[in-house]
Specification:
Length: about 220
C-alpha cells in the first residue's frame, strides 16, 4: 500500500514524461482513488462494462445490473492492433482487465482467500466443479477447459490488507490462454481490487517480463482519514 505522497510523486513523474513527449505509461486509478497500476502507453484503453455484464450474467436493464454498476469500477487495456474485449479470453497480445468492487454486507461476511482466487474465474476445485455442473445443467458445454495451475502466492500487505497472486491457464476453444491475477482485500474488508493480465501461453513465455512489470505495479493507496 502506498501513501498519497508517493502517489503525488508518481503523478509528477507522469507529467514530466508527458512534457517531453508521449508518456511511457497509462497511470490508472479507480474512481474511489484506492487502487493504482500502470500500463505501457502502447495499450489502448477500452470500456470494460460489457465484461462486467458477461461475468455477472445480469441483464443490462435489470435492477441488479444497475445496483452492481454503482459499486463496481472496471477498465481494460489491449495491446493488439485491433483492440477488443474478447481478447480477455483469447489473444496473442497482452490484455489487461482491472475491477474494484465495493462489497455488500453479505459479501464481506463470506470473503476469503479462496473467494479472492475465484473472484473472476473458477480457480479452486470446488469453483471449477460448480462451474462445469452449472454449464452442463443449462445444456451448455463448458467454455473453460483443462485448467492448469502455475502460481499461487498469498500476499500479506501493509495495514492489514491481504490478497493472492495467481497464474493459471485454461484451454478456451483451440487455444490455451494464461492469466496472471492479483486480487486484494483492503484492510477494512470492504473492497476487493483485482488486476488480470492475460494472453496465450506462448505470449506469456515470450513476454513474461513485461507482464510481470504490469502485475507488480498494482497497489492499494492509503488515503487520508
Amino acid at each position: 500500500m502506498i501513501s498519497v505522497r508517493t502517489w503525488a510523486a508518481v503523478m509528477v513523474a507522469a507529467l514530466l514524461a508527458s512534457a517531453c513527449g508521449q508518456p511511457a505509461f497509462h497511470y490508472v486509478r479507480d474512481k474511489g482513488g484506492t487502487t493504482y497500476f500502470k500500463v505501457p502507453s502502447t495499450f489502448a484503453q477500452l470500456d470494460a462494462y460489457p465484461i462486467e455484464l458477461y461475468l455477472s450474467r445480469l441483464h443490462p436493464d435489470s435492477e441488479a445490473a444497475r445496483l452492481r454498476k454503482e459499486r463496481v469500477w472496471s477498465t481494460a487495456f489491449d495491446q493488439a492492433g485491433a483492440p477488443t474485449l474478447q481478447h480477455l479470453l483469447s489473444s496473442g497480445e497482452p490484455f489487461v482487465y482491472s475491477t474494484v468492487h465495493q462489497l455488500t454486507v453479505r459479501e464481506r461476511d463470506r470473503v476469503s482467500l479462496d473467494g479472492l482466487r475465484d473472484f473472476v474465474f473458477p480457480v479452486t476445485e470446488p469453483a471449477r466443479t460448480a462451474y462445469v455442473t452449472d454449464r452442463l445443467g443449462s445444456g451448455q458445454m463448458p467454455l473453460y477447459l483443462k485448467f492448469e495451475p502455475l502460481l499461487d502466492r498469498v500476499l500479506t500487505l501493509d495495514g492489514g490488507a491481504r490478497g493472492v497472486r495467481l497464474r493459471f491457464s485454461y484451454q478456451i476453444g483451440p487455444d490455451v490462454q494464461t492469466f496472471d491475477q492479483t486480487a486484494i482485500l483492503d484492510e477494512k474488508g470492504s473492497t476487493v481490487s483485482v488486476l488480470i493480465v492475460s494472453c496465450r501461453s506462448l505470449c506469456f513465455r515470450e513476454r513474461g517480463g513485461e507482464i510481470d512489470q504490469i502485475a507488480r505495479s498494482f497497489k492499494l493507496l492509503r488515503l487520508p482519514g
